[in-house]
Amino acid sequence: MLQNRPDELQSIEIRNVFSLSVGGEPVKAKVFGEYAAAGCIEIPIGSAFACDNPAIAAIDAETGEVRGITPGVTTITASDGHQMARQLVVVTNPVTHPKRELRGAWISTVVNIDWPTKGVFEPERQRADYVYLLDELARTGMNAVFVQVRPTSDSFHSSEYFPWSHWLTGKQGVAPSDGSDPLRFMIEEAHMRNMEFHAWINPYRVSMDTDVSQLDPSHPARLHPEWVVPNNGKLYFNPGIEEAKNYIVAGVTEIVRKYDVDGIHMDDYFYPYPGPEAFDDAKQYGDYINGGGTFSLGDWRRENVNSIVSDLHRAIKEFKPYVKFGISPFAIWRNKAIDPTGSDTDGEQNYDGLYADTRTWMKQGWLDYIAPQNYWHFGSPAAAYEKVIDWWTKEIEGENDNSGKHDLHLYIGQAAYRVGRDDWTNPDQLPAQLRYNRDRGDQISGSIMFSTSHLLANTLGVQDAVRTAYARPALIPVMPWLAGDEPPSAPAIVELQRLDDAVRLSWRDSGDAKPAYYAVYRIPGEGTPDPNDTAQLLATVRRTDDELQVFMDDTVDSDRANAYAITALNRQHHESGMSNTVTVSTRP
After folding, report:
1. Residues 106, 56 share a domain
2. Number of structural domains, the chain?
3. CA angle 280, 285, 290 (to 5 degrees)
């Protein structure tokens, strides 16, 4: 039993154990007591430990030594005979480095959360700040960015439909002072670092306040005030107005038509989150009923949202079938208490609160990926991270409602912004979430961090931890249902040159199709690199317009021989066969 001190023991807690690796070194749980006089001190321990699920973690009843058995989440306990302490334990497989994994970050522009820097309107400085963000994200291992280009029904590019954003220039409707095209620049810089660029839009949000007079005269909310609903301190387009929906779709089509984006992205804002003030669409719903409509108000609203999701999918694919369309919704579709096919959670619901029926979108094939914002911690009472993950992995497989597997990727929205707050004070909370995701194999195709500034703040070392998790480069997973499934021809290495502290590798394309980028493989010694061995993937390199492509390997060990080979990939990440293999000898 735990040995009490003479003064009053008020409570006990378990420390020193949170996450374990299957087959890894055991960790000894430590028990601390809070005493009325002595404060918090470690308590000598006896046979007082237990585990709720020994199949996941085994604990020695006397010493408190805990070992990971199989991936999962369980709880260990310690008791002094009068009081009990409980500690959640996450068990994951040993760290792996998958060859294919989307590693993304949101760059939020509304209220200048991430970029541009608040109060900085000089285009040159903005470009430098953006490049810094990309460089840091690349250093952290990211291969995709999701940049908010329409935060409040405005634009970060010249548009026929929406005025220039005041988050960009300081005044809505005013272009950058040097006449530049920020969106084109952002895309080009992302592609230079071989990152996918997803243009992130908020379809319905008009402004962060209700003062219409502050909007530019050209703003559609000024031109069509009948499209707009004030609600809980903000302005929104009314999803029940067909003309407003068509206008939003046209604005997105403009982006797809004019810019080399890899994807169009929407987040969790559909009908506003419920607040004190009800959303006033009584007139539109009344018109619908008077016209013979039979849907309930909830079903009618869901159909309005379904309509814009469907129309956006159709418009994007009509212009560029290879451009991806994805949504990052609030992570609870419905609670199990409301719908037996829902998740074991107790929180706001997409279906009933935001009128966003994610299940229907997946069934209808309107999305290429879905990225639920799982912003809870392991064991969260309202929505435990692990329970939300378990539900979504079953949802994309169609297991929750027996509907069959859906053709889309599942990415997970990760709450980098919560690290260091409340129940996020354990430095391994978010890294353990990434490992937990990877234990789902191909069911989870990657993660997206919110937000970039919070990640780069490196609170509790979170950026360092993510960089460690992403230590090896990764290709983005293939979406076989998209157009462009024919891989390029294998390139041909034409020169390998050893320099003082680097190796210069040069190659040419073969075949007619131009690749989007290349994967460079390296092995020590002689032999042929294996593209299926993730440890041999050295780097990805964006294609340039030059006839000869070049890569400088400045990480090479000059004291040993190394063999190289290269593959070519198209923009949908289909990979060619291997090039010829070349070997560089040790430094003389």
Report:
1. no
2. 3
3. 145
Q: How many CA atoms lie within 13 A of 242 on its CB side?
A: 2
Q: Are residues 402 and 536 in the same domain?
A: no
Whether 80 and 157 share a structural domain: no
| Any domain includes 207 | yes
Sequence-separated (6 or more) residues with CB below 8 Å from residue 107 = 114, 115, 133, 145, 146, 147, 148, 451, 452
Amino acid present at 232: N
**Do 449 and 504 fall into the same domain?**
no
Query: CA dihedral in degrees (354, 358, 361, 366; nearest 10)?
Result: 90
- Domain limits at 37? 9-92
Same domain membership, residue 497 and residue 449: no
Sheet of 57-59, strand order: 27-28, 65-68, 57-59
| Total residue count of the chain as it appears in this document | 588
Looking at residue 127, the DSSP 8-state letter turns out to be H
Q: What is the pLDDT along the chain (588 residues), one digit of tens a residue?
A: 445 554 587 888 999 999 999 999 999 999 988 888 778 888 875 568 999 999 999 999 999 999 999 999 999 999 887 789 999 999 999 999 999 999 999 999 999 999 999 999 999 999 999 999 999 999 999 999 999 999 999 999 999 999 999 999 999 999 999 999 999 999 999 999 999 999 999 999 999 999 999 999 999 999 999 999 999 999 999 999 999 999 999 999 999 999 999 999 999 999 999 999 999 999 999 999 999 999 999 999 999 999 999 999 999 999 999 999 999 999 999 999 999 999 999 999 999 999 999 999 999 999 999 999 999 999 999 999 999 999 999 999 999 999 999 999 999 999 999 999 999 999 999 999 999 999 999 999 999 999 999 999 999 999 999 999 999 999 999 999 998 889 999 999 999 999 888 999 999 999 889 999 999 999 999 999 999 999 999 999 999 999 999 999 999 988 889 999 999 999 999 999 999 999 998 665
Residue 474 lies in a domain: no
In-domain check, residue 485: no
CATH number at residue 200: 3.20.20.80
Asked whether residue 476 is assigned to any structural domain, the reply reads no
Q: How far is CA 291 from the centre of its chain?
A: 42
Q: pTM, whole model, 2 decimals?
A: 0.96
Q: Give the domain-ending residue among 92, 121, 145.
A: 92
What is the C-alpha to C-alpha distance for residues 314 and 318, in angstroms, rounded to an integer? Answer: 6
Residues 71 and 123 in one domain: no
Same domain flag for 197 and 320: yes
User: Same structural domain for residues 79 and 115?
Assistant: no
- Residue 303 CA, chain-centre distance (Å), reads 27
